[in-house]
Amino acid sequence: MLKWEKMSDLNEDTLNRIAQALEKLAPKEAVIPTLDGADAFVWHAEPDQLLAINNVNHVKLDLLKGIDHVRDILVKNTEQFAAGYPANNALLWGARGMGKSSLVKAIHGGLKKIALIEIHREDIPSLPRLLDVIRASKRQCILFCDDLSFDHDDGTYKSLKAVLEGGIEGRPENVIFYATSNRRHLMPRDMMENERSTAINPSEATEEKVSLSDRFGLWLGFHSCNQDDYLAMIDGYLDHYNIPAKRATAHAEALTWSRTRGARSGRVAYQYIQDLAGRMSVRLEK
């Protein structure tokens, strides 16, 4: 009876505060990620969520010069997938700044009904959970990982191998995986050679590493461009942004600019265009 009398002395305000404190301590109900409301997303793990991206930094497909062959292959592969026909996962590898990630985003820009989902390399272990979300949505998705590579003592690649082709369920029919990398086999050469030198069976150790890139049906190589392709990139940007510069002057400056960077590439060409537009007070509208 004494305990009940003490409880009855508590006023309503105190009870409300206790109830609110208990609610804060209780675990929040997990929000199930969805593919609604946007055409592009970034996947974040722990907690799992799909962050909608309303303004993707697309580049027009015809501005990507010097990669005509690989561009046509990837466009065809993506169109097959969009139409519901079989298509391959693709690994875009090679020279820096030659439009690997820009090509993926440009192709997506022309196929609005497909969702583009970017996943960061460090979130690859959560891929099975993301694939469950995609499988349940039925929406066609390009799963995109930019600058994919693996270093020493990194076992993350085993998770990716299982997702790309292995496992009982296999890859959902409504998803395709595109990745970019500077490395053809996604791992540094010395890492593969070290595995070969320390293994009981060197060929088996190398096969374990190389088998990851074999999961990609398409290997599309991007190589450094020649001078003609580089200047074609400059001309394309001059026309697209209506920059009133003399071609001969722009070409000479662009070549000098590339020599200071030690390379000719689409990225270097765009960096020069940004410098030129700034000097000429021209805004580069997206």
How would you characterize the overall build of this protein?
This protein has two domains: 40-222, Rossmann fold (3-Layer(aba) Sandwich), CATH 3.40.50.300; 227-279. It has a seven-stranded mixed sheet with strand order 2-1-4-5-6-3-7, with helices on both faces. It has helices at 2-8, 12-25, 68-82, 100-109, 127-137, 156-164, 189-198, 202-213, 227-240, 247-261, 266-279, and strands spanning 40-44, 49-52, 90-94, 115-119, 141-145, 175-181, 218-222. The longest helix has 15 residues, at 68-82. The termini are far apart. Helix 9 packs across helix 11 (266-279) and helix 10 (247-261) crosses helix 11 (266-279). The chain has 286 residues and is α/β, with parallel strands linked by helices. It is globular, with a radius of gyration of 26 Å.
